[in-house]
Design a protein that fits this description.
2 copies of one chain form a homodimer.
Chain A: H1 5-19, H2 28-35, H3 39-50, E1 55-58, E2 64-67, H4 76-84, E3 93-94, E4 97-98, H5 110-124, H6 129-134
Antiparallel strand pairs in A: 1-2, 3-4
Helix pairs in contact in A: 1-2, 1-4
Chain A binds a DNA duplex (30 and 30 nucleotides) through helix 3.
DNA sequence: TTGAAAACCTACTAAACCAGTAGTATTATA
DNA sequence: TATAATACTACTGGTTTAGTAGGTTTTCAA
């Protein structure tokens, strides 16, 4: 039940771009160095985001990336959904329907997973890049520890 | 970001035991057949739960397992915590402290993960086996769909 | 007292996934 | 036209997942 490096790196890259968005296009090399992430690996993650309007690209000399939307209009849920493929905690809950299991009609545990999926979904789509920069989401304040 | 079969099978086994708890000790063979799960694989999962007081065991002829506590006293969170190892969505959040990353002191994304960890934790520890049998947790009712 | 049925224990394995590395092609600008 | 950047594709070593397989020990009942 872990978020992979793909999702975490994508998020760190976008937060980095949000923090430096006054500087125009930023080269991947710069981001990779600032974040301590393999540039080559980031190169593989970027296209996933690039299929949407989250990123703007300039190729060639002095090219790079910048955010295609305001940080307040980009949610963590959207980014993770793209990079992780799916945010649902079990395979039998997919977009728009129940799949993959002939027991689902009468599965007593299915409501657990739907409930879990909902709290995860609701939370992640409530946090924007702007919240992260401001450290200001309502969920961030508490001193909760496992 | 998926719950593995270990956690899901453990939960199904315990729900099965909860539903049949008037019948005393139940053999793993019976549970495996009812649930359509490999008995041999379940054999590997059981010891994890058996280290706690969640299960009572009888070995030998006509032996088996039964719940060691009331279904209302066993939470989904507890079961998944045992079988999945950790419920935290990132490695840098562990029990009681932050580990594994020298960037954590100034990591802007850490509050996201702490917030996510909290909503997952709060939810999973709010659902008991009894809730599952009754289909009666507050989160179960909604018609939420991705 | 012995056979059967159960839990218990350990080792092995095929397939998938993760976290990259490597190399080349394409594009844009000074 | 050299250079610096993105874009694309293939490969890889390590780990995890989801089991199988086989043997040992315990208990009860006939």
């Amino acid at each position: 039940m872990k978020i992979s490096t793909k999702g975490r790196y994508a998020l760190r890259m976008l937060v980095d771009l949000a923090e430096h968005r006054s500087e125009g296009y930023t080269a991947l090399k710069t981001i990779a160095e600032r974040q301590g992430i393999s540039k080559k690996y980031l190169e593989q993650i970027v296209p996933i985001l690039n299929r949407t309007d989250i990123l703007l690209t300039n190729r060639g000399f002095q090219g790079g990336y910048q955010l295609g939307r305001e940080p307040s209009e980009i949610t963590v849920g959207e980014v993770l959904r793209l990079t992780e493929g799916s945010l649902s905690p079990v395979a039998c809950i997919g977009p728009n329907e129940i799949v993959n299991c002939d027991r689902s009609v009468d599965c007593p545990t299915l409501p657990i997973w739907k409930g879990l999926d909902k709290v995860i979904h609701d939370y992640l789509y409530s946090v924007t890049l702007q919240d992260i920069i401001d450290q200001s989401n309502e969920h961030f304040a508490d001193d909760y520890m496992i």
